[in-house]
Design brief:
Layout (H helix, E strand, L loop, with lengths): L2 H19 L9 E5 L11 E4 L15 E4 L4 E3 L6 H13 L5 E5 L2 H7 L11 H4 L5 E4 L9 H11 L4 E4 L3 E6 L2 H23 L9 H33 L6
Parallel strand pairs: 6-7
Antiparallel strand pairs: 1-2, 1-5, 2-3, 3-4, 5-8, 7-8
Length: 248
């Protein structure tokens, strides 16, 4: 197997297992995908790895991941791809080229924000500031994603942003690598949790000045990639010691 493709499989399996550990999963639903280059080495977004149909995230291994194309054809693997996963992920990979890694979850706190009329992630806490200017919102729930048109609509909604809050549904997190996307997924849920807990207290919420927001946004440009790298390296080390079978 191509060494880069093998490492991509390992990283995606690691992310899925950790999402299960952190209770960011929902049964055997929701999906993580990673676009991989074509055989000529060019990244076109029309081939991607994705978790297999019917597998719990805690049991996914590198070899169980499905490599498929934008037509839904399985190129590598003995498993299948769930329909809504295909229509969401394939179309976002193609329609939003920056979305190399696409993570879709119904994780509790972030999803709870999508259930509020005009629900937004508010820039009032340090973790939230990691996402300042990087969030898009889809305010039109359209049912199960069982057609390419719905996937194309979601790709247009996320545009060039990293995060998409999907009304009455969940979130999509997109990034250039598994490490970057998973780091965002983790801190997005933390930011959402702090927001929900703070609002539940009924007191007046603090605000952060525009000046500090802009300065912090600039700081995160340099700090976020370093944070993602060391965070995901630590997650791999923990799994290597406790669940090494994820690599197989």
């Amino acid at each position: 197997m191509n060494p880069d493709l093998k490492q991509s499989r390992i990283d995606l399996a690691c992310a899925l297992r950790w999402a299960a550990r952190l209770n960011l999963h929902e049964g055997v639903d929701n999906h993580f995908s990673l676009a991989v280059p074509d055989e000529d080495g060019v990244m076109r977004g029309n081939r991607f790895l994705i978790n297999p149909y019917g597998w719990h995230w805690s049991e996914v291994t590198a070899s169980s991941l499905v490599l498929c194309n934008d037509k839904g054809e399985v190129l590598e693997g003995d498993n299948e791809v769930e329909d809504t996963a295909f229509f969401i992920h394939s179309r976002i990979h193609i329609g939003a080229p920056h979305a190399i890694c696409v993570l879709h979850t119904h994780m509790p706190y972030a999803t709870s924000i999508t259930l509020l009329e005009d629900g937004k992630l508010e820039m009032m806490e340090q973790n939230a500031l990691l996402f300042d200017g990087r969030v898009a919102y889809d305010d039109e729930y359209e049912g199960l994603a069982l057609a390419s048109d719905e996937g194309d609509r979601l790709a247009r909604k996320i545009g060039n942003k990293s995060i998409l809050f999907m009304a009455s549904h969940g979130v999509v997190v997109a990034g250039p690598t598994v490490a970057d996307a998973f780091n965002d997924l983790y801190y997005l849920e933390r930011a959402s949790m702090f927001q929900v807990l703070a609002k539940s207290q009924g007191g007046k919420l603090r605000t952060i000045s525009d000046r500090v927001r802009q300065e912090t946004k600039a700081q995160f440009v340099d700090e976020a990639p370093k944070l993602a790298s060391r965070h995901f390296s630590a997650l791999r080390r923990v799994l290597d010691n406790t669940e090494p079978a994820y690599r197989h």
